[in-house]
Specification:
Structural class of chain B: mainly alpha
Strand order of the largest sheet of chain A: 5-6-2-1-8
Shape of chain B: globular
Structural class of chain A: alpha+beta
Oligomer: heterodimer
Radius of gyration of chain B: 26 Å
Helix content of chain B: over 70%
Order of helices and strands of chain A: EEHHEEEEEEEEHHHHHHHHH
Largest interface: A-B, 85 and 96 residues
Number of helices of chain B: 23
Radius of gyration of chain A: 28 Å
Number of helices of chain A: 11
Strand content of chain A: 15-25%
Largest sheet of chain B: none
Helix content of chain A: 40-55%
Number of strands of chain B: 0
Strand content of chain B: under 5%
Distance between the termini of chain A: 67 Å
Chain lengths: ~450, ~425
């Protein structure tokens, strides 16, 4: 044929992706190993090119995984760690024009001990000169991610559905800073066995839901319901001031209304916090969310400790002003209680325990409590929001975060209602000296928990 | 009451935050992780695209910025052979026209370039001419019009367009176009000089490689393997991986008799960029070596891409049909039914001399030699010095019984370039011996 100038030779209108070799690498840093979840998605033309070698697909898969691992470089604090191939599977999904495409999945693993702050970098050089989508993610399992150059979840669902109109990704390198202990991806595992594994799995399936390419109304509603459940579970997960709130309600004779106020504040603060963090994370180019979580944790802890101090002061005043507090045989002086409008309507009509010193102080502590409870945004809610944004489903993400907050509120209100109902019974049993000590003990507990929260967060900064 | 009021304040603040969040977090902001520096192996072009995208996210009313982004996407599509960039280019250019002034020449020229890339040459010409009318001093507009006019077989108008382009902007793009027109008209030395000017005004390694490829190809087409080889070497010194240069190096090697070396080079290029042109050349080399199975696999790669285009509903692609005709002539692989009629229809939309040559060869492969002859004559109507086109007409003339005409064309083909094809040159020699 005649030579054609002006690059017209390249202008043959290939349908999208027929020539591409697409790759995804999900780096997961655990306490004792770094694993890589590698996916290779070949379009029809490159699949045709390798078809001669596919007579034994298993052999081809393990050989190709081995060469991909060989072309990759994992460095842990600057030292190269060799990757071993743990799994390799290949399938040939049908493509256009009666041709096949190819999907190869490899698992790589390198032992690593993360016992101090560590820099992990991973670079893949496989199929470097081919046209295609190259995506990487990084996450920690049992270690805290301090900073990362890539997102934690895949925008293509591990090459299952490429986002429309997104720029072709070309990420071949990732650098992650990790440190031992709980981080964003591990917060929910740090407590007792109540929530941990199940909660994480729930969050994972939740994120997957948001990423489904075929999101229908039914699935959307299901995701919303899941968001409510997750929020409720989150409220009972340790480390979020629920025990503190319980102690507060016991000490301050909170009613159902108080519980509702705290729950509402928690929800609003939390939702607003997640959205603000979402804005920051999507607009700032490079940002370490772990730092934010830590500082918010410090603020939250200090606020709780402050509330504890105020409670302690009120408890002291509640006992001492009349000097004969010790002989009362009843744990509470009525002298200061003028606020009969508080605490009704919650079903405990027989025991009108009145509010402590002044409604202003109470309400301030109450709102501060709720604020502290909602201040540190739940990483899983942030992840869900970011996932939705990257898929162009911002409104859906916001809706889910609100659902999450409502779930939290419902759980906290339920807890409050139970406490409000059972407190009178409790008080009838605990009388005398012990009874009078209850507010002090509760206030002290609130302070201690607040301070420990703050200290723990400071250590994580 | 004060308490309630405060609660209302808190609730109001929260709602305000929620609303701000929902408004600010729009997907228009590129998701974190997609535009981060330092994590990807972006080349200059995609870096420029990223910068432009970021700028346009801040200044969505920048009509020139949108047009430039659209053109950058067209460039990217050429460089990466990823046609998905064309729809992105379309969107950016349409945006430019929406926010831009009435006489938006850059966006119109961009739309013309996208249409040309999609082989919609009438549309490309319309956009190119509209762009040139909107701004007669826009060189790119004349370039787009030139490209369309050449494909539409309107060479005199194309000459006017390329002259305007050179007057406005004497650079690699305008000189290369002039060179191509000279070449089509058989003025080989003028074509060479123009391409030399294109090389001298090259400002990027890609431009240099482009000019070297065409200087080398001009030398090769004239049978001058030494000069072709030196252009390839010079070019590879600037861009070691350029697939066009490596394809030519393989062709030169094969012409010089180094078939295994050519095959190694072509396999390496194909493993990177599996374009039909490279696959067909590898098939020829392997067939010339006697490796029928290897050749069939390589030719299969061409057929696969033709199948994919057909499945995607793309109109008949003349380049790919030309390869199918080669298979029919050389390997007795029958043409798909109806191919000849489709090709004749495609010619009406793209009546260039190159198309005429393809149509002639397909009609010959389909056994319609008389019709083929008129297209073969049309293919040589400008006096193009192409060994392959003369070979085609010689074979067709022989099939119509014109032995003298066949002899003249075959001799001319071998005179122009005795190495024009590893498969057809030997056939030309034996046939010529038979008719002499």
């Amino acid at each position: 044929m005649m030579p054609v100038v002006l690059g017209l030779v390249l202008l043959v209108a290939h349908p999208l992706n027929n020539l591409t070799i697409n790759q995804y690498s999900g780096v997961l840093i655990g306490t004792d190993a770094v694993t890589v979840d590698y996916v290779l998605d070949m379009a029809e033309v490159p699949t045709y090119q390798v078809r001669g070698d596919l007579s034994d697909p298993r052999a081809w898969a393990s050989a190709t995984c081995a060469s991909v691992a060989g072309a990759a470089r994992l460095r842990i604090d600057g030292t190269t760690a060799p990757l071993a191939v743990t799994t390799s599977t290949v399938s040939l999904p049908p493509g256009d024009a009666g041709l096949s495409t190819l999907r190869l999945e490899c698992g790589f693993r390198a032992p690593a001990t993360i016992d101090r702050e560590t820099t992990v970098s991973y670079r893949s050089a496989a199929f470097a000169d081919r046209i295609g989508w190259r995506e990487m993610t990084a996450a920690g399992a049992g270690v805290a991610v301090v900073s990362s150059s890539v997102p934690t979840s895949s925008v293509s669902g591990r090459l299952a559905a490429y986002p429309q109109d997104a720029a072709l990704l070309d990420v071949t390198e990732v650098t992650v800073q990790v440190r031992p202990g709980a981080g964003a991806s591990t917060v929910d595992r740090s407590g007792p066995a109540a929530a941990p594994a199940g909660l994480d799995r729930l969050t994972a399936s939740f994120t997957e839901f948001v990423g489904r390419p075929d999101l229908t109304l039914g699935l959307g509603l299901l995701a919303l319901a899941l968001a409510l459940v997750l929020g409720a579970l989150h409220a009972f997960a340790p480390g979020h001031g629920k025990s503190v709130m319980a102690a507060y309600l016991v000490a301050e004779r909170g009613s159902l209304r108080h519980a509702l106020a705290v729950a509402g504040t928690v929800t609003l603060t939390h939702t607003a916090g997640v959205l603000v963090l979402g804005i920051v994370l999507t607009t700032a180019i490079r940002f370490a969310p772990e730092q934010i979580y830590a500082w918010l944790g410090v603020a939250s802890g200090l606020l709780v400790a402050g509330v504890g101090a105020a409670m302690l002061r009120r408890a002291r005043r509640g006992v001492h002003p009349h000097g004969h507090g010790h002989d009362h045989g009843h744990d509470h002086s009525h002298v200061h209680g003028h606020d009969h409008d508080h605490g009704h309507g919650s079903g405990h009509h027989h025991h009108h325990h009145h509010d402590g010193p002044g409604r202003g102080g109470r309400l301030r502590s109450l709102l501060a409590m709720g604020f502290a409870g909602g201040l540190a945004p739940s990483p899983s809610a942030v992840v869900v929001l970011l996932g939705a944004i990257s898929l162009g489903r911002t409104w859906f993400g916001v809706l889910l975060v609100i659902g999450y907050g409502l779930g939290m509120a419902a759980a906290l209100a339920a807890l409050g209602a139970v406490l409000a109902r059972w407190r009178p019974v409790l008080e009838r049993r605990v009388r005398g000296r012990t009874g009078r000590l209850v507010p002090f003990a509760a206030a002290a507990l609130v302070m201690v928990v607040g301070l420990s929260l703050a200290v723990r967060s400071v250590l994580a900064v | 009451m004060r308490v309630r009021w405060r609660l209302v304040m808190v609730a109001g603040l929260a709602v305000a935050l929620l609303t701000t969040g929902a408004v600010l977090i729009r997907p228009a902001v590129p998701p974190a992780g997609q535009a981060r520096p330092g994590t990807s192996t972006v080349d200059d072009l995609s870096a420029a695209i990223t910068a432009r995208e970021a700028r346009l996210a801040r200044l969505p009313g920048d009509w020139l910025g949108w047009a430039e982004l659209g053109m950058a996407y067209v460039q990217q599509a050429r460089v990466t052979s990823d046609p998905s960039y064309y729809s992105r280019a379309d969107a950016a250019l349409a945006r430019s026209l929406t926010v831009g002034p009435d006489a938006n020449a850059p966006a119109l020229a961009g739309l013309g370039a996208v249409a040309a890339a999609r082989h919609e040459f009438a549309t490309a010409l319309r956009h190119g001419q509209a762009a040139a009318a909107a701004d007669p001093y826009n060189a790119a507009a004349h370039g787009v019009a030139f490209d369309a006019l050449v494909e539409l077989g309107r060479y005199d108008e194309a000459e006017t367009a390329v002259q305007s382009m050179i007057d406005l902007r004497p650079d690699t793009g305008s000189y290369a176009r002039a060179s191509y027109l000279f070449e089509l008209r058989g003025r080989v030395s003028a074509a060479r000089e123009a391409m030399q000017l294109a090389l001298e005004s090259a400002s990027t390694p890609a431009d240099t490689a482009f000019a070297r490829v065409h200087l080398g190809q001009l030398a090769f087409d004239a049978g001058d393997l030494t000069t072709a080889s030196s252009h390839v070497d010079e070019g590879l010194r600037v861009t070691a991986a350029d697939p066009g240069l490596r394809l030519l190096r393989a062709r030169v090697a094969a012409a010089a008799g180094d078939l295994p070396g050519a095959a190694i080079e072509l396999r390496s290029v194909l493993s990177r960029l599996p374009l039909p042109d490279y696959a067909a050349t590898l098939g020829d080399v392997l067939a010339a070596q006697g490796d029928a199975a290897g050749a069939a696999t390589a030719y299969g790669l061409v057929a696969v891409q033709a199948d994919l285009l057909a499945a995607a509903g793309v109109a008949t692609n003349l380049e790919l049909v030309g390869y199918a005709a080669d298979r029919a002539v050389l390997d007795r692989t029958p043409l798909p039914a109806g191919t000849a009629d489709k090709v004749v229809a495609a010619y009406r939309a793209r009546p260039s001399v190159g198309s005429a040559d393809t149509v002639a060869w397909v009609l010959h492969a389909a056994g319609r030699h008389r019709e083929a002859l008129s297209y073969a004559d049309a293919a040589l109507r400008l006096g193009t010095r192409s060994a392959l086109v003369h070979f085609h007409r010689g074979v067709i003339r022989l099939a119509t019984g014109d032995r003298a005409g066949a002899r003249a064309d075959l001799a001319e083909a071998l005179r122009i370039n005795p190495h024009f094809s590893v498969r057809y040159a030997p056939i030309a020699r034996t046939t010529l011996g038979g008719v002499s």
